[in-house]
Design brief:
The complex is a heterodimer.
Chain A: E1 2-3, E2 6-7, H1 17-24, E3 43-46, E4 49-52, E5 65-67, H2 75-83, H3 93-106, H4 112-118, H5 130-140
Parallel strand pairs in A: 1-5
Antiparallel strand pairs in A: 1-2, 3-4, 3-5
Helix pairs in contact in A: 2-5
Chain B: H1 8-12, E1 19-21, H2 27-32, E2 40-42, E3 53-55, E4 61-64, H3 69-76, H4 81-88, H5 93-96, H6 101-107, H7 115-120, E5 124-129, E6 132-137, E7 142-144, E8 147-148, E9 155-161, E10 167-173, E11 184-192, E12 198-206, E13 213-214, H8 216-222, H9 229-242, H10 253-280
Parallel strand pairs in B: 1-2
Antiparallel strand pairs in B: 3-4, 4-9, 5-6, 5-9, 7-8, 10-11, 11-12, 12-13
The chains are: A alpha+beta, B alpha+beta.
The structure holds flavin-adenine dinucleotide and FE2/S2 (inorganic) cluster (2 copies).
Amino acid sequence: MKVNGVPVTPPDPDARLLDYLRDDLGLIGAKEGCGMGECGSCTVLMDGVPVCSCLVLVCQAEDADVTTVEGLRRTALQEAFVTGQAVQCGFCIAGMVVSASALLAEHPDPTDEQIRAGLEGNLCRCTGYGAIVRAVREAAR
Amino acid sequence: MSPHPRTAAEVDRLDPARALLAGGTDLLVRRRAGHQGGPLADVSRLRDAPAPVRRLSDGSIWLSALAPLSVIDRELGGKLPGLRAAIACFASGQIRNRATLGGNLANASPAADGVPPLVVAGAVLRLRGPAGRREIPVTEFATGPGRTRLAPGEWIENIDVPPQPAHAGFRKIAGRRALAISIVSLAWTWDRGPGGALTGVRLAAGAVAPVVVRCPGAEAALEGRAPTPDVVAAAVAALGHDISPISDLRASAGYRRAALAGALTEALTPALTEAPARRNT
Ligand SMILES: Cc1cc2nc3c(=O)[nH]c(=O)nc-3n(C[C@H](O)[C@H](O)[C@H](O)COP(=O)(O)OP(=O)(O)OC[C@H]3O[C@@H](n4cnc5c(N)ncnc54)[C@H](O)[C@@H]3O)c2cc1C
Ligand code: FES
Ligand code: FES
């Protein structure tokens, strides 16, 4: 497995990918909101596509390229979240940014509809989503 | 845990006590809740997994039971629009990147969104296991919520979909657009014959009976007829006898009946507006 480009050897193949990333590697961007695929705060990229790391076991990602929010190189996107005040408590944001980065890789100039669809698996209890959608649109410019 | 299988033959030889782990989007949720704590065997990375979508020369399509829904969707292109419509409203992008049709079928929820389109398509499941291979029509596979005809150690490798009629679709009614379990769902296929008559009508409904069900009464009310408002009304009335919904935390039985009637009416509406125009010109 590679995490953010670095080869790693996880000790426990039966651990959840989320726990390995947070507890063993100290990559605490991905968060556990629900632990059952509903909230998206644990979203990471596995071979380029967003997945819920709470529902992937380490053994399933053995040959995969895993990218966490810490490994994203899309600073324009992260800056748009900050300058657009799209962050309140911040709990959902790592997952939002990871999903948004996959969305922009697929649709460099997304419509609002595409942005909302791209973030459908990420829940936010604070912002009401408006500022988040605007930040992604801004980053696409 | 002993090493995970890397070939289909290794899956056949597994201890049947090990639960197959595909996308994990049902199984790992259940485990977190303290259920199904036994040993697992990951089947998401078989070296000889079938191609996600294989088009055969006779027009039929083989779908891999092990491929993520998002990959099936992409590789289908314009084919199987009913199944693609079901995938489009399935969970969320993150879940579709992991969840499989094999898991959706084996989980045997009456609300499984992947199943109604396969039922109307007349799909056949290709199973294999310690006793060899066999085929079973998808309509005979689930026997109740969470129960199937899989023998111990048996698993689904492919889903064989025969050539399809021209029209197919899927409608899901749920609490919200993403990440919601179907309150009811309806899949349909049909062709249009001479004079706009509906032929080869097949309907299947989710979350209105212990398993996904075909709707033979409503199908018979439509078969061979051009869809007029009266024909649609007769089909909707017949649909009420095809289903046995229950009330649960998501909706009442009465809501389910009304919602499914609405879904069928909506599904037929494009056909309805088409037919008279064709006759008059
Ligand atoms: C947040 C969330 C949202 C969801 N939304 C929807 C939705 O909108 N619609 C819907 O229908 N479902 C939904 N689900 C349920 C789930 O995603 C689907 O049922 C999915 O298709 C299961 O596939 P899987 O590969 O993840 O199965 P797994 O969890 O890996 O396995 C499920 C069961 O099937 C068995 N199994 C898996 N593959 C095979 C095989 N090839 N042969 C035999 N047995 C097998 C496993 O042993 C296990 O018992 C949702 C789940 C979550 C967590
Ligand atoms: S913690 Fe994984 S989806 Fe909520
Ligand atoms: S900013 Fe608080 S959950 Fe999204």
